[in-house]
Amino acid sequence: MAKTPVIAIVDDDEGVRTSLASLVRSLGYEAHAYASGAEFLRQSPGNDPTCMIADIQMPVITGDELQAQLVASGRRFPIIFMTAFPSELVRQRVMAAGAHCFLGKPSSGDEIIRCLEEALAGQAQQ
């Protein structure tokens, strides 16, 4: 029996975390929500998610700083970034570092689902 994909949601906005977790669960996936990059990093690397949806603009550790720390420590899984302040410079930086998608906020459920399904399909092929 295939293991249910685990999607980590990292966003300092509780409403966004709650709505994304609800969307992820409605698709049949397991959702783990974190209020910050630091909170996510406190979990053991052996419990890495199948995929992550992360905000860029967060206090203490931004989404792109979280990505850099994960990559530097060898923790690689698809990351879908969402931000209310999209910039081409940040998009290029996170995509060059291996991000799967870069979406503006608000994004439609369909856009999020498309990115998530593409990311999970890529993981299944590895």
From TrEMBL:
Do you know which PROSITE patterns this protein is assigned to? RESPONSE_REGULATORY
Q: Which residues carry this modification: 4-aspartylphosphate?
A: 55
| Superkingdom of the organism of origin | Bacteria
Looking up SUPFAM superfamilies in the UniProt record yields: CheY-like
Q: Name one Pfam family in it.
A: Response_reg
- Keywords assigned by UniProt, alphabetized: Phosphoprotein
Q: Where does the Response regulatory domain lie?
A: 6-120
Specify whether Phosphoprotein is a keyword of the entry: yes
Name the Gene3D superfamilies on file. Answer: 3.40.50.2300
SMART domains in alphabetical order: REC
Query: In the UniProt record, does the keyword Phosphoprotein occur?
Result: yes
User: Which BP terms in the Gene Ontology apply to this protein?
Assistant: phosphorelay signal transduction system
The name this protein carries in UniProt is Response regulator receiver domain-containing protein
Name the species this protein comes from: Bradyrhizobium shewense
Q: Which taxonomic lineage is given here?
A: Bacteria, Pseudomonadati, Pseudomonadota, Alphaproteobacteria, Hyphomicrobiales
